[in-house]
Amino acid sequence: MSETAPVTLRPRRIRLVCWASAATLLVVFSLVATSLAGPTGNGYGTFQRGDQLAMAGLGVLGALGILLFTRPRVEADALGVRVRNVLGSYELPWEVVRGVRFDRGAPWASLELHDDDLVPMVALQAADKELAVEGVRALRRLHQAHLAALAEGAAGR
């Protein structure tokens, strides 16, 4: 693999868990929706078609909420890194990145910026073990290649 080859990283384990959970939630809410028929427990009302549709709709909304957790992704190339987390995204040039961190016990990796901020990369999760470690190594190679290019540019002047 070239040091400047583009890298795309996504979590593996959480995606499998989320897809299975979303499918299960959808099935459960569909079964509950089909069982809503006839009078209520105390006989003062009856379940209607709208109640069934509302329960199925809640299942769809819940499944979509779970699938938000499959959104994280990290894409990096020689120019910079793009981080997409569950509810936000960042596009950073390598010039603002001090290093790629994956601290012991941390749930995911992060980018350390020159202004001492940390940008979490939820796509590189500790639960993915070796896949996450290889992803961090690939990002560090890209960062080191950028630093080497800067050093060459400064030495060439």
From TrEMBL:
Keyword Transmembrane helix among record annotations: yes
Keyword Transmembrane: yes
Domain Low molecular weight protein antigen 6 PH intervals: 71-141
Residues spanning the membrane: 53-70
Keywords: Membrane, Transmembrane, Transmembrane helix
Protein known as: Membrane protein
Species annotation: Micromonospora haikouensis
